[in-house]
Amino acid sequence: MSNNTFSLIGVYGGTFDPVHFGHLRIAEELVEILQLDEMRFLPAGRPRLRNEPVASQYHRMTMLQRAIHDNGRFLLDDREIRRSGESHSVESLRELRDEFSGKKIAFCFIMGIDAFLKLPNWYLWRELFELSHLVIVNRPGHVSLASQACLPLKLKDECLGRWAGDVSMLRSAQSGFILTTATTLLDISATTIRTCIATGKSARYLLPDIVLNYIGTHHVYTRKNENG
Q1: What is the sign of the dihedral through the CA atoms of 78, 84, 86 and 91?
Q2: Distance CA 27, CA 8 (A)
Q3: Residue 176 has what DSSP assignment?
Q4: For residues 17 and 190, is the Cβ–Cβ distance under 8 A?
Q5: Angle between helices 57-68 and 209-218 (to 10 degrees)
Q6: Which of 10, 66, 77, 161 would you call most buried, defined as having the most Cβ atoms within 10 angstroms of its Cβ?
Q7: If DSSP codes are grouped into helix, strand and coil, which group holds residue 40?
């Protein structure tokens, strides 16, 4: 690899409540598409713009660890679970940049189109472009980014000149580009899985057996007050 080229590390945040095949398939495909050195799964502790997760932080982290343990490119990053207060992606990316200081590494922050459209509501959202590239994946049932006409005005203005035509552009700079990618859209939702489990229906084949077995053993999503 050229000395002027950056290696890429993916950063995939979310509540993972629970992690399922939709999450895992997207991550697997992005590792190949972007030729990532690794994909870091970053479970949120206390998300600022979403409802409090149903499962405890410990259960969500443990389920995720079990789901990815046999993939050499997948890594659990628990910094937001360990951090007190609300989870802010910008703080995690700042820490990662400090930890990899001096190395030719560029971070690719993975976002679904639904989250990307709400980006102006995020904490210090413009700083994300200074810390990483953004990689946008489509979500079942959500608008496509085939045209940027759907973007809120503030976001549209910020994105001018940032759209990357291919992965090589991400490797040419440490941050600032936006790449949209086509991945397999598995229409699986954590809400559906939780509802199935809470009502005694089968959630098999929606998530890894090792995660489903853990949920059953620890009665995750079946007790009214789940505190881990």
Answers
A1: negative
A2: 14
A3: -
A4: yes
A5: 150
A6: 10
A7: strand
